[in-house]
Specification:
Chain lengths: ~350, ~80
């Protein structure tokens, strides 16, 4: 079994601009051996002054991604000496504030339902209703080439080789029945006591079965900003207690838009001739997420809205932000393919 | 999953509105051919709309056919 947690990356990290260059340079040193990180704060200033759209900003999204991996490991800072560095955390908070500000200004949020479990769940199901029209899932099922299917796995790898981790940050930040619901979902994500059933481990087998490298970070330089934005959104919601409503809503929307596309993904990989070793991950998610979406909508998000009424608006914001950013990512991939291009980052 | 379970019951079955039956606890399901279907997860969702492609389990397809388990709410 591939253990996705312990591999060391095969490639060095490469900066995408002056901000990530500053961060990577700092991470090569030791916190005690450096002056207050003025170059870092200046780099944050410059990056924010320069940025127009944070979601597609390669330098900012890559930097946020690297900062979040300081809390999970496996990519840089092997001894964990930078995790709680005050300068890096302060810089991250400023990047997050700008990211959140853009999201608050652009994410369409539905009218708020009554703060009751059933009403909140009903609103979430309406919001996540499967839509007709072009979709990445249908493209993958019907048209994607072998290279495009592999590219899809590469795009998914930054999150899915660490599947479920960003939402787990919310566990100690919730209390009572919403926490119980979240743990019920996460336990299933983590294999319910069986290491080989961890969804991240099943995905690693899919990646290897498709002839790719399941080492975490193996394809980092190929990952575009919008894909990092999708992951950074979850990390930001999960790691900030004030955003616990948003992370609950995010997980609900994420689970509620999963079963049906995963059937299409499985169909696509079967069409391309892959066997169960590769399609197992997608087949598993058809069944698993049909369970998770009910728990997430009613017992997590719905119950949280009843228990902490002040979080209702953020639950809907988190769900809507998930849908918007993940649609930007899916549209980027599908539109690249339809134009005959790769969706991977051009270097 | 509402409230405390102090009944001592091994299995709890919860109908979710417009969705599947969620089953918590150790169950073995007998398939139409008499074979046992042993769930691979602790909590399972059983199809209630009849169109799941992975029956007896739910695959979320009920959402595509606007499956309703209760009368429409009055606005």
């Amino acid at each position: 079994m591939t253990d996705t947690g312990t591999h060391t990356p095969s490639a060095r990290l490469h900066a995408r601009g002056s901000l990530s260059d500053s961060l990577l340079h700092i991470l090569e040193g030791h916190p005690d051996a450096v002056e207050p990180l003025t170059t870092w704060h200046d780099a944050v200033d410059d990056a924010l002054a320069r940025a127009t759209d944070l979601i597609t900003d390669e330098d900012i999204q890559f930097t946020l991604f690297v900062l979040y991996t300081l809390h999970t490991g496996g990519l840089t800072d092997p001894d964990g000496i930078w995790e709680w560095n005050g300068d890096l955390l302060a810089g991250r908070a400023r990047l997050e504030a700008a990211f959140e500000r853009q999201l608050r200004a652009t994410v369409p949020v539905p009218d708020l339902p009554r703060g009751e479990r059933a009403a909140v769940a009903a609103t979430l199901f309406e919001l996540t209703q499967p839509s007709p029209g072009p979709s990445l899932a249908r493209f993958l099922a019907k048209k994607a080439t072998l290279d495009q299917a592999r590219e899809f796995l590469i795009q998914r790898s930054v999150y899915t080789l660490r599947e479920a981790d960003p939402h787990s940050w919310a566990i100690p930040r919730l209390h009572g029945r919403s926490k119980v619901a979240l743990v019920e979902i996460q336990s299933d994500e983590y294999g319910a006591g069986r290491a080989d059933r961890q969804h991240a481990a099943i995905f690693a087998r899919t990646v290897e079965g498709a002839g790719l490298d399941a080492t975490y970070g193996a394809y980092l330089d190929d990952i575009p900003a919008v894909t990092f934005a999708s992951l950074n959104l979850m990390s930001m919601f999960g790691l900030n207690r004030r955003l616990r409503g948003a992370i609950a809503g995010h997980l609900a929307a994420f689970e509620m838009t999963s079963s049906i596309p995963n059937r299409s993904y499985a169909d696509g990989f079967r069409r391309l001739g892959f066997g169960d070793d590769v399609t197992e991950y997608f087949d598993e998610h058809v069944e698993a997420d049909a369970v998770h979406e009910q728990i997430a909508a009613h017992d997590l998000a719905g119950a949280l809205a009843e228990d902490e009424p002040a979080l209702l608006a953020d639950i809907l914001f988190g769900a809507s932000a998930c849908l918007m950013v993940d649609e930007l990512m899916a549209d980027h991939i599908r539109e690249s393919w339809e134009a005959g291009r790769s969706s991977l980052r051009t270097r | 999953m509402s409230g405390d379970d102090r009944s001592g019951a091994a299995v709890r079955i919860s109908p979710y509105p417009d969705g599947p039956l969620i089953v918590r606890g150790d169950v073995v399901i007998t398939g139409p051919d008499g074979e046992d279907i042993v769930p691979t997860r602790r909590t399972v969702a059983l199809c209630r709309c009849g169109i799941s492609a992975i029956k007896p389990f739910c695959d979320g397809t009920h959402k595509l056919m606007n499956f309703r388990t209760e009368a429409p709410a009055e606005d």
